[in-house]
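Q: What residues go here?
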């Protein structure tokens, strides 16, 4: 295994294996949402294991966000980079979802819902998510705030130890929940990272393994983190509603094994053009698919008299097309423009990059 390096003067190191894993996770979550509830009765099966796609997202975030923090020259730069990466695309997808929902449920959808969701944390305002998938975003934001606080304190080099302290405090918080039942329920519903932090922490430890190699300390931290994730199976999230403890533990273990292959440079087989493309549109696909996709499936069956299988195929194709258009035609140019206007010192898109790179990815196979 070779340690990786990164600078702020050349192109950022991008791990295509992680793009592929993102794509797999996003597609799995989409398939999960499209095959549960009423659709399960029509299909005769459900892809319930797709519920764990968010677990994989959280592990990837732990790795990638620490990488981003390590490259940033300041907390301000890190915060701007995260804001630019997350919010413009989210606002576009949320507004499109709002329009669909306004048409389908006008009595339950108004300006209040749109504005509250624009923060990514509508639950703090007593408002439901426009799309059920949005519940993970506030967890990601909480992790970013924690990372920014670590950067601000100048202790990024001690983040593995700081994370272990946080992890220990979280497990203690859950173990002693009987002492403060009302406060406990409030926290696990409003600050949901307490149910998922070990997954981010595993990503952090894998970052250090990828960067500088294995150590006994890293192995202990990983075992501790994975064990904590097992313990939190029934403490929050949605996996507990679809998977047994044993099933969830096996999948979390599999995700850790995938990362072991990744940090050992043995995940090259995932560098497939289709998976990398799927990874590039994964954020938008995750944001756009659930509410809109389920409505399209319903309408195709109701008004188009289509069987569930062609309806499912058409809907998946449409969601991926929406995600492709928003990602490549709106998100990438917008992100590059905003980064240049905000004068980030980290590498930003070069003049020819954003759309051309995308188009070349799609056409290179034919050339």
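A:
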């Amino acid at each position: 295994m070779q340690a990786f390096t990164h600078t702020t003067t050349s192109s950022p190191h991008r791990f295509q294996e992680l793009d592929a894993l993102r794509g797999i996770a996003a597609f799995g979550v989409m398939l999960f949402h499209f095959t549960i509830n009423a659709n399960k009765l029509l299909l005769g099966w459900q892809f319930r294991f797709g519920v764990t796609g968010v677990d994989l997202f959280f592990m990837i975030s732990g790795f990638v966000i620490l990488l981003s923090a390590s490259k940033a020259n300041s907390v301000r730069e890190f915060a701007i980079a995260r804001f630019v990466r997350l919010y413009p695309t989210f606002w576009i997808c949320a507004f499109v979802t709002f329009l669909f929902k306004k048409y389908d449920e006008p009595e339950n959808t108004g300006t209040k819902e749109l504005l509250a969701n624009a923060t990514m944390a509508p639950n703090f305002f007593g408002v439901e998510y426009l799309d059920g998938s949005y519940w993970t975003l506030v967890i990601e934001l909480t992790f970013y705030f924690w990372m920014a606080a670590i950067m601000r304190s100048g202790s990024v080099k001690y983040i593995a130890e700081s994370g272990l302290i946080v992890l220990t405090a979280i497990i203690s918080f859950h173990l002693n929940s009987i002492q403060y039942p009302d406060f406990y329920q409030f926290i696990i519903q409003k600050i949901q990272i307490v149910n998922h932090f070990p997954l981010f922490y595993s990503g952090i430890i894998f970052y250090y393994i990828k960067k500088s190699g294995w150590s006994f300390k890293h192995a202990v931290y990983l075992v501790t983190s994975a064990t904590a994730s097992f313990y939190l199976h029934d403490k929050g999230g949605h996996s507990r509603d679809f998977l047994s403890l044993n099933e969830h533990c096996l999948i979390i273990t599999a995700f850790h094994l995938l990362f072991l292959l990744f940090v050992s440079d043995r995940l090259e087989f995932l560098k497939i053009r289709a998976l990398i493309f799927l990874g590039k549109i994964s954020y938008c696909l995750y944001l756009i698919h659930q509410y809109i996709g389920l409505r399209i499936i319903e309408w195709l069956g109701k008004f188009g008299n289509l069987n569930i299988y062609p309806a499912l195929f058409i809907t998946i194709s449409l969601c991926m097309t929406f995600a492709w258009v928003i990602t490549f035609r709106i998100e990438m140019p917008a992100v590059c423009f905003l980064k240049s206007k905000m004068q980030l010192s980290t590498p930003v898109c070069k003049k020819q990059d954003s759309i051309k790179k995308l188009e070349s990815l799609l056409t290179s196979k034919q050339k």
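A: Context that may help when evaluating the design: The chain has a mean pLDDT of 90. DSSP finds 16 helices and no strands in the chain.
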